[in-house]
Amino acid sequence: MYFGFFNLKNQNNMKKNLLFIVSLFIAAIVNSQTFTFTDSYGNELQYAVSSATTVSLTSGSTLNNNNIDIPATVSNAGNTYNVTSIGNYAFQGSSTTYVSIPNTITSIGKQAFGNTNLTSVVLPSSLITIDEYAFQYNQLQGITIPENVNSIGIGAFRGNPLTTVTSLATAPPTITTAASNSDSFAVGGNRSNIDLYIPTSTTGAYVTNSGALWTGFNTVTENLNTGDTYVYNYITYEVISAANSTVKVIDYNTTGGTVVNIPTTIPNGLITYSVIEIGTQAFENKGLTDVTLPSTLTNIGEKAFFINNLASVTIPNNVTTINNGAFAQNQNMTNITLGNNVSVIGDYAFRFTGLTTITIPESVTNIGVIAFGGMGDIITDVYCEGIVPPTISTSSNPNSDTFNLSRSSVNLHIPSGTEGAYVTNPGALWTGFNSVNTLSASQFELNNQIKVITKDNGLEITSDNGLTLKKYSIYNITGAKITQGKATFISTETLSNGIYILELQFNEGRIAKKFVK
Question: What is the model's pTM?
Fold first, then answer.
């Protein structure tokens, strides 16, 4: 009985051992299996099976092109595998100038791309480890380390003409910092020619904390993420899209003065951001007397310039929307130039300004409640260029009307042949004006080519397309001529306060505009 039990027990152990040995044998066969798979450039890339579902690129590929396209998956003998690693020495010493690395790769092995001709490389966001000497002695001028990387080996990028290193990882990857060839980024450990870019609020972890390894770089700049803010020349910006490098203005420090020139772009280290939006209340009640808007602008937010002292404003051609109250309560504003892509003018956008003449480009489709007008406003002429009338609010209640005043004192100027659509057709909204004048295209063009800009001490006349001012005349409200001349700057210092008519005679026609002193 005793010996029978002993034999049975030994038999079970032998079976277990045999199964274990067989498993090791099968694993060894699987792991030693290699095959080739041709990429899109005709290279015969060699892979080694790592598991039942994954493979690693190995050395031994036959390269028929200087470009390499590593696929995310490969097939062999009816099986499909994910390509998860680039093995040691995979492309070392080749003439590779370009490589596409898929977002399945988690590791790049020792000297995988050492001593090749790469001028740039995009590392996938799936990457976790970069082994020693992986990209040594190439032609890389900049490299971006993905956010999941936690380890960069000895000499991984040494011998490259690097000028920038960007790390997206909030926890600094482990690197080698040494005054020798062991340094992860530079021969001899000299990083003084390399600018480092890191995530916001990580300077301590990367550079200044005790034991920090990312030291010795020429400059260290914290990258901006979407939603981050940044102050440049007294203006505070918020990143709209880090990926697209776009920002909007959200605030202004009045220490910068009353005259503001908003730039088209702002720098942050070597990264340049385009200014495409003025945010809600960004310049509200800042005492501005003059502002220049950037050509990159596409949107002007609610109350962006509410309660200021702007005399005139030019809306760039890329702007499509002027939101509610954007320029309201700029009572000195006597001139606006709307860009030719503005489609929406919001409620109260230009309420309580000093506008007497308004030109609405044909791109405008909607104009909100009390967009123009308000207590004390003296609008006399509205020029609307659209063949299709913009949608406006027409109401007997001034507080619900687009123009917020009695239209019986305002002259409407519209393109020839559009009277029905604007005024007489059933449902037409542009009614109740003092007069309706149809102007030819040439008359509209002349009006738009001439701008009268009100200054503190006079009027500045500007014109486009070679127009020549032959004579100006100023009349008081009763029609009596006050003065005349030929200068493009007209002093108003000797005029009494009041309403005047300015007649301008050019080589191609004559126009009249009202202004207030």
Answer: 0.59
